[in-house]
Design goal:
252 residues, mainly alpha, 10 helices, 77% helix, elongated
């Protein structure tokens, strides 16, 4: 109870202390100069600038609080994105990448190594922005039935992510989730994916291309985030790179 009263009275106590200190300083000034006029002029001069002081301090504190809030939100978003890649994203990226035409060029461009710098990540993003990731599920032999079982099994997880209010601040990742969720619905709506009409194949190729476009970009950004903020997680992510021919957690 006593501690609670001290917390309540602390601002008032600080105000009294500051007033006393200020009064003591003006008293010393008066004793040195011996002129009440000089002390009064100095006091009015400081008082005139008080609103400016308050404005500067307020704006500075507001910017600091906003930046701290942005950093906190960014950490929360990156945690959600990390969970997504652990549960769904990394495997989905690996499987969809096999259906991309010119897969070898894609693999080389996204084969992240521990030596990558910001320039390398920027180059990877530029490649993805200029590269037309055409999809051929039939030619690549992508097992759509297996993909369907995997994604349908993760439907509840994906819905849970969509319900996360923090993701409203990350439009690109939200678009990725909607694209994945739409692909789940398209696959699940078909009882069988064997021998489906060519029009359906092309439609699914388009849905997969949309997912892969969002997914590849978010994966590169996620890897860059891990390298900057979580080197130990980045080390494992590099070893398990879905673009590697033989991903392995072992250190050699």
């Amino acid at each position: 109870m006593l501690n609670k009263q001290l917390l309540i009275n602390r601002p008032r106590l600080m105000l009294i202390i500051l007033v006393c200190i200020s009064s003591l300083i003006y008293l010393v000034d008066y004793m040195v100069d011996g002129s009440l006029k000089e002390v009064t002029t100095s006091f009015l001069g400081n008082l005139a600038f008080l609103p400016i002081y308050i404005m500067v301090v307020t704006l500075t504190m507001e910017q600091l609080l906003k930046e701290r809030e942005r950093q906190t939100l960014r950490r929360k978003l990156n945690m959600v994105i990390g969970v997504f890649f652990s549960e769904v994203g990394t495997r989905l990226f690996r499987e969809l990448a096999t259906a991309v035409l010119q897969h070898e060029q894609l693999r080389v461009s996204l084969l992240v190594t521990p030596q990558w710098k910001d320039a390398d990540f920027s180059a990877a993003l530029a490649f993805l922005g200029s590269h037309d990731s055409r999809i051929d599920t039939v030619g690549a032999g992508l097992d759509l039935e297996q993909l369907k079982r995997f994604l349908v099994g993760k439907r509840s997880f994906l819905v849970g992510l969509l319900e996360n209010q923090n993701l409203l601040e990350h439009e690109a990742f939200t678009d990725l989730l909607w694209a994945v969720f739409h692909l789940v619905e398209e696959l699940d709506a078909r009882d069988s994916l064997a021998g489906i009409p060519q029009a359906d194949v092309e439609h699914l190729n388009g849905d997969i291309k949309r997912v892969f476009g969002y997914l590849s970009r978010e994966w590169v950004l996620y890897m860059q985030h891990l390298k900057q903020d979580y080197p130990y997680l980045f080390s494992l992510a590099v070893r398990m790179n879905p673009m590697a021919e033989q991903a392995s957690p072992h250190l050699y």
